[in-house]
Amino acid sequence: MKSIKHAIAAAVSEHTGFSAGDIVNLIEYPPNPELGDLALPCFQFAKQLRKNPAMIASELADKLVASDGIDSANAQGGYLNIRLERSTYALGIVEQALRSVHGLFSEERGTGHTVAVDYSAPNIAKPFGVGHLRSTIIGQAIVRLMREDGYRVEGVNHLGDWGTQFGKNIAAYLKWGDEETVRKDPVRELFKLYVRFHEEVQQHPELEDEGRYWFRQLEEGDEQANRLWRWFIDESLRAFQETYKTLGVEFDHYLGESFYNDKMDAIVDELRAKGLLVEDDGAEVVDLSAYDMPPCIIKKSDGTSIYATRDLAAADYRHRVLGADTLVYVVGAEQKLHFQQVFKVLELLGRDYAKRCTHVAFGLMKFNGERLSTRRGHVVYLEDVLNKAIEEAKRIIQEKNPNLADQDAVARSVGVGAVIFNDLKTYRVHEVDFRYEDVLNFDGETGPYVQYTHARACSVLRKADTAASETFNWPTQVQPDDIEWALILRLAQAGEALARAVDEFDPSVMARYILHVCHAFNRFYHNNPILQADNPVRAARLALTQATRNVIAKALYLIGLDAPEEM
Where does the Arginyl tRNA synthetase N-terminal domain start and stop, copy by copy (predicted)? Predict the structure, then answer.
């Protein structure tokens, strides 16, 4: 759709003097398809051209009607409504989807650019709860979307493997832990100890001093502290990687906060040399009051490091070693101030890439209306949620299609897809209230619905293969009817969906696009006989079915869902 919009914008530019780049952004889709396929509001031209918008629209209609690919152009009020030449346009879109669906989605806008995307980042020795789901799957989708758009992407898991909480973990383990018990279920048992620490500290505040003491020991290289810390990391990673495998999530780098311990001094020294560090109640900070922000703490009063220091070192590493010219952080909205401070300090250090740092914020994940808290032990294990979704998917499959081959694999794809799609269909900055009845609802605008639409298209194509050996293509003499045309127009918007999802760092744009395509295809499927039609209409509808299947499969992959061929 972008190409025809640019052609229209170029023609309008020639007659109005406005730039084609500005005009193309004005072209929209009419709310009622009876008005046309595209519409151009002419109100913004009125002042410069000193004409009534309706008159401008009428004059442009006379100019555009002779343009290639335009069937008609009509003025209605201040709008120029445009109809495209259906058979020509259908041939181009369907053939593109059949020949190279990537070309339908991508203009390779990111070629030559490298992006580091920081996502997931669970805390060591704590469970992988549903609260970490959002960062993980939003980040994975952004990685795939940007790669599709031509970017070289480095996916980074910035594990929470350092900080005062590890002093608390060590203190709790030494006070109440039992090695044999912990080894049976490391993450859950260590988490119980962490929760107990915070419960006990209510009655025994001196425990906080013990936690700080053990973290200082860890920073100073104490053998016992280091051995326990390393054990916590190894056991946690084993558990995390099982969850990532189930979700289909991958990373290029596992680089925890501790990786930057030997890289922070250089940042601190540079801040000091440039006169950016000041003392504040014994701590070393960067004063950001001139930018209406509280000071950014670089070193606490006890001399230990803090998140900001490690994030500054991590940013330099990602730019210098990984070659990233853009840094993306998929982290909850509650960290907004933290990233504003870090980005401002990078700017004050003279880092050119600071202006290409983006915090991709997202809303909280609640469970049945309540906020989750690892300190209070209020956490829902993601592993349990995924397993329950897979079990429910298998139950439905056995009920509806008991003869389906490889039911376990399909149930896994559908159950996990249900959880992912339930989250990603929501605009990312909104809060998500996690409720089993919503996640596991297999009707309506859900993951199973879009996956089933893909499987339905595959079923049609399988039946066509057994009945005939034709090669699917759109015959030039076939004129799409209104229902076919609505589906073709949806397929044509794939590139716009990708570009917007990338530009806004929002996978929900692609999730909503998939739903629109599925709605259009199911309407086509129910109203237009495919296998029973006579050629050349049969050939056209089979080609459109295969094109739709390719688009749905690609779009599902981009947001992290499998595309089962049978369900």
Answer: 2-84
Residues 204-248 have pLDDT tens digits of 999 999 999 999 899 899 999 999 999 999 999 998 999 999 999
b/e code 349-378 from CB counts within 10 Å (16+ = b): bebebbebbbbbbbbebbbeeeebebeeee
Helix (H) and strand (E) counts for the chain? 23, 14
Question: pTM of the prediction?
Answer: 0.93
What pLDDT, on a 0 to 100 scale, did the predictor assign at position 226? 96
Tell me, what's the pLDDT at 140? 98
What are the CA-CA distances from residue 559 to residues 246, 274, 362, 516, 524 (Å)? 15, 44, 16, 15, 25
For 64-116, the DSSP string reads HTTSTTEEEEEEETTEEEEEE-HHHHHHHHHHHHHH-HHHHH---TTTT-EEE
Residue 4 in domain: yes
Give me the domain span that covers residue 67. Answer: 1-84
Backbone angles phi, psi at 432, to 5 degrees: -120, 125
> Which one of 84, 109, 141 terminates a domain?
84
Structure tokens at 104: 């339908």
Quick one: pLDDT at residue 467?
54
Backbone angles phi, psi at 253, to 5 degrees: -145, 135
**51, part of any domain:** yes
Burial class (CB in 10 A: 0-12, 13-18, 19+), 298: buried
Where the chain has pLDDT below 50, the residues are: 469
Q: Which residues have CB under 8 Å from 502's CB, separation 6+?
A: 109, 110, 142, 145, 146, 149
The helix (run of H) or strand (run of E) holding residue 283 is strand 283-286
Q: Which residues make Cβ contacts (< 8 Å) with residue 238, sequence separation at least 6?
A: none
Distant-in-sequence, close-in-space partners of 338: CB < 8 Å, separation ≥ 6: 307, 308, 311
The pair of three-digit structure tokens given for residue 465, joined into one six-digit string: 């293969």
Q: Are 545 and 461 in contact (CB under 8 A)?
A: yes
SS3 125: coil
